[in-house]
Design brief:
Keywords: Iron, Membrane, Transmembrane, Transmembrane helix. It comes from Commensalibacter communis. The chain is built from 3 helices and 6 strands, in the order H-E-E-H-E-E-E-H-E. With 106 residues, the chain is α+β, with helices and mostly antiparallel strands. It has a 6-stranded antiparallel beta sheet. It is elongated.
Amino acid sequence: MTYDKKSAKMLRTKIIINILAIFIMSIFSLNTSSPGKSCIVDHIEDLQTPDPISNRLRDLGFVSGETVKVIAFGPFGANPIAVQVGSTRFALRRNEAARVIIRADS
């Protein structure tokens, strides 16, 4: 009986780890997205309190649930990053785009 309980506990632990891995892998920052791919804004990460850049991103429409798309990167993958929220396009620096946490569009 002890062996069965131990096996069941190990199986539950493996399942939980797999679920967490899937969840973690599906959330990433906007600056790591591929051009042309549509994603959903999960949240804006504040790097300090208060964070004026994060607040400005929210004011521009980067809010939870909004669709965002990377249009293009600067030369050699550098700054700026052209992104589209709704019908509006913005040029963001990489460090600004890193504050926008996105998830895959399902």
